[in-house]
Amino acid sequence: MVVSTVFIGLIGCIFAGMATALGALPIFFTKEISHKHLDGLLGFAAGVMLAATCFSLIVPSIEYGGGGLNAVILTSAGILSGGIMLDLIDRYAPHEHLLFRDKEKSVSSSLSKVWLFIIAITIHNFPEGLAVGVGFGSGNVYDGISLALGIGLQNIPEGLAVALALKRENYSNRKAFNIALLTGLVEPIGGIIGMLMIKISKPMLPFILALAAGAMLFVISDEIIPETHEHGFERIATYGLLFGFVIMMILDVTLG
Fold it and tell me: Residue 120 in contact with residue 97, Cβ under 8 Å?
């Protein structure tokens, strides 16, 4: 049973990562995606991640901790630790906080900035994979599947953003697609580490679940939401977030 759970978890992590490539597919059929549509999609992604964090990581963390004040304190410590972990990575790993640069604002260093953005997406895919791996590693396959679906959904607009940024720098469709795919393949690595962490230290399950939740909350607040408010379409992005949250909540309850 353990082997089958690990196998299903690995498949789930690969699926979540491959969704990045699914998001990049439209570059073969269109030359441009408006800020309006991309901000709406990214808002949806933020809502999906937020719901997955709440219902598939934080709530199970408190439940596995036995409920009560001690469980809440342990979960809180895990959330804060996850946020601090991502903050340190954010500070010391070179990357750029941008999805697009408007053509009229592009500069000679725009290509290097695009690559710094790709590094940022790759770095932030790791805690997402970690969360999926932890979900499966907890032994609750339904939580793992819910997280894999949620992370997969939010990876779609990220893959599109990476591919479009590269197309703006005159990369071919094939190269842009392949690079977007590679950014998502970090997630299975994070997933394997997450499952191993649970298998090695089962008593630490509540803390590790909360750690993954804190890392994801940091990404949502520090990266995704600010990006959706940069181009004047914040209301569309906000409704996208609401719809994403509701859809992920329904999926979580249905699967659970």
Answer: yes
